[in-house]
């Protein structure tokens, strides 16, 4: 049985940065954000449910979901966020499970779940150990503003829609501090691989 590892953090804390480093070293990453994009493509079950719930105004002219519009609705309204989660999350779990089965068939020694809402959605049962990618809130806000072109108010609403990152840090089996340079983060990723004896 391979080692099952959870990789989490909060919005813009650096999960993708760390998971790309792990991918470069040959590790298999099951990415919940990617799964959440696949399951809302036109024709998929969740796609129709989202339109029934949020209306045709969140559909682009090419029939895809307008993620920016849907984001501005759900990050400002907890009830609507819960509605979207209840549509999307079950199909995300199914998608991740299909990918896991494939990775098992391929004989991988380590399977890494990259799940931003690992703690919020009580998914820790999927993994043996959790690593949290941590940044201070001011760094997180600055990086989120730079990356997504949101207003400060929109960025803060996104940060507050998740469990505080310091609480995730307290629950973690290991923490990667991503406040510093990319090189400093890379060094911690290498240490983690050594300490946990991880092999692809
Ligand atoms: C609202 C949507 C359309 C916004 O899309 P957008 O392309 O702008 O963002 P993206 O999907 O890349 O998500 C960026 C980050 O936002 C955070 N986030 C996304 N959804 C949620 C949510 N429901 N609750 C809290 N944080 C969330 C995560 O940290 C994620 O890494 C999209 O995030 C979505 O469909 N969310 C619901 C599914 C979900 O919960 N995904 C998270 C992993 S399962
Ligand atoms: N150590 C670092 N130094 C400078 N910039 C960084 C560092 N780590 C990440 N970034 C930048 O910060 C932003 C957020 O990082 P990343 O996309 O990896 O976070 P994430 O946790 O995957 O985000 P999300 O959950 O929102 O998708 C990106 O623009 C990334 O290039």
Automatic annotation (TrEMBL):
MF annotations from Gene Ontology: ATP binding; dephospho-CoA kinase activity
Keyword annotations from UniProtKB, A to Z: ATP-binding, Coenzyme A biosynthesis, Cytoplasm, Kinase, Nucleotide-binding, Transferase
Source species: Lederbergia citrisecunda
Annotated localization: Cytoplasm
Keyword Transferase: yes
Pathway: Cofactor biosynthesis; coenzyme A biosynthesis; CoA from (R)-pantothenate: step 5/5
General function of this protein: Catalyzes the phosphorylation of the 3'-hydroxyl group of dephosphocoenzyme A to form coenzyme A.
Family matches, as HAMAP family: Dephospho_CoA_kinase
CC annotations in GO: cytoplasm
Name of this protein: Dephospho-CoA kinase
Kinase among keywords: yes
Domain of life per record: Bacteria
Enzyme Commission number: 2.7.1.24
Catalytic activity: 3'-dephospho-CoA + ATP = ADP + CoA + H(+)
PANTHER family hit by this protein: BIFUNCTIONAL COENZYME A SYNTHASE-RELATED, DEPHOSPHO-COA KINASE-RELATED
Main location: cytoplasm
Gene transcribed to yield this protein: coaE
A Pfam entry, by short name: CoaE
Binding site for ATP: 12-17
SUPFAM superfamilies, sorted: P-loop containing nucleoside triphosphate hydrolases
């Amino acid at each position: 049985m391979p080692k099952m590892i959870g990789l989490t953090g909060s919005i813009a804390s650096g999960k993708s940065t760390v998971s790309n480093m792990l991918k470069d070293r040959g590790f298999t990453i099951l990415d919940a954000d990617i799964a959440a994009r696949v399951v809302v493509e036109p024709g998929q079950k969740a796609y129709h449910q989202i339109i029934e719930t949020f209306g045709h105004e969140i559909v682009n002219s090419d029939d895809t979901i307008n993620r920016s519009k849907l984001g501005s609705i759900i990050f400002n309204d907890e009830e609507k966020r819960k509605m979207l989660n209840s549509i999307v999350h079950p199909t995300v779990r199914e998608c991740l499970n299909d990918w896991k089965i494939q990775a098992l068939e391929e004989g991988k020694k380590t399977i890494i779940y990259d799940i931003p809402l690992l703690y919020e959605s009580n998914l820790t049962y999927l993994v043996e150990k959790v690593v949290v990618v941590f940044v201070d809130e001011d760094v997180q806000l600055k990086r989120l503003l730079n990356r997504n072109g949101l207003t400060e108010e929109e960025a803060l609403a996104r940060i507050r829609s998740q469990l505080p990152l310091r609480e995730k840090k307290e629950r973690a089996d290991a923490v990667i501090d991503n406040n510093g340079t990319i090189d400093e983060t890379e060094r911690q990723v290498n240490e983690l691989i050594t300490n946990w004896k991880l092999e692809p």
